[in-house]
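Hi support team,

I submitted a single chain yesterday and got back a structure, but I'm not sure I'm reading the token output correctly. Could someone confirm the output below corresponds to the sequence I sent? I've pasted both exactly as they appear in my results page.

Thanks,
R.
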Amino acid sequence: MVGRWTLALVAASLFSPRATHAQAPADGWVAWQSNRQDGRVEIYIAHADGTEVRRLTYKGGQRPRFSPDGGWISFQGFGSDDRSAFVIRPDGGGLKKIFDGPPLFWKHDGAGLVCEKGTDYHLVDPDGGGDQLLFKKSDFPRVAGSTLLPGGLTHDGRYLVAGTDLYRPGFKGDNGTFKASFAAVVLDLSHRDRVYFLGAGCWPFTPPAGTLVYHICGDCPTKPDIYRMDLGDLATRASYAPEKAHPDADWGHEYNPDISNDNKWLAYMASTGCHSGYTCDYEIFLHRLGAGTDQRVRVTEEPHFDGYPSIHIGPLGPSQTSDAGAGSDGQTGSCDGGVCGASFAVESAGGCGCAVGAAGRDGPLLLWLAVLGIYWLLPRRVPSMIRQPKIRSSASAPRLRTGPSRATSQSQPPPSS
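Hi R., thanks for writing in. Yes, this is the structure output for that exact sequence:
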């Protein structure tokens, strides 16, 4: 009796997913860029627990972002198209180039994708392809002579967060005098001559709701870390505090975050100290907002570059299997989303196949049921001279674990600051 139960527990522990995946949102999805195959940076998608990994692009792609409704994933081209904006459906269909300039961020109200063209910033419709001028760098006179890297608009459209070198020599803004080689700032769109210092560092971003803004802190004790501040404290920065701050050695080199559409989860990339270049082993992590700086869930485990994640909670919008593989650039390859539709194709060394969601997400439950079934089928008494039969359990849905060694050089080595 004890032997059979011991065997059942061992089997379940061996074949269940890692404990770190147990806390991932069950209805979550993550898109990111990786050089795990062919040494080339491409866009991948998976469940938030890391199962059912699927490659979406085949001619290069970087910096993916889910649209607010989950119907599109925007990304920046790579190589010859590294200054162009593309969109693709989460099932691999509908790929198309929509703007001759890099994509920056989606408006939280779903109005479109903000893209850059020189020092002008356009709002682009991913469905119709039309665009309109949203704002210009020259609209903000105090940063006109400095670098300006817009990171996001607040959900009410009042504030723009951006990265700038305005404070490099020391600068007096509307909330004090600060000095930083690069800084995250808040610009008031209703008073465009005002500039507020958020913090030294880079990569400012905004959530889909609430009054917080975030950025990567460059001068905090365990830098780089993810910090937040309430917009109600622009004048004093009194609420400036860490959201994620692990030491580098403990996967604490946090970078390039994104907040989910339900405003509950933060996705980010982290290394153990390596900063720039595709030879760094960055991995994807999730953090539930407000859950404490030590709470996190690891999504990827690859000895390659996995970074620039985007997270979406809930349905991914209408399936576009009818135009999967279509589009003016035809990036989709042999793992065509049109074949598998919403079940998603899983790519492995042996080719492509359709993976059902239950195999990845419900694997532990199915394994427990199988083990219990085997237990009841075992004879009540087994002669001592006969060895107990071995229980063979099938692994969960295939996960992409193949690929050559890391690329030693790529254009535009990340992360950006």
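A quick pointer for reading it: Helices lie at 2-15, 337-340, 357-361, 363-377. Let us know if anything else looks off.

Best,
Support desk
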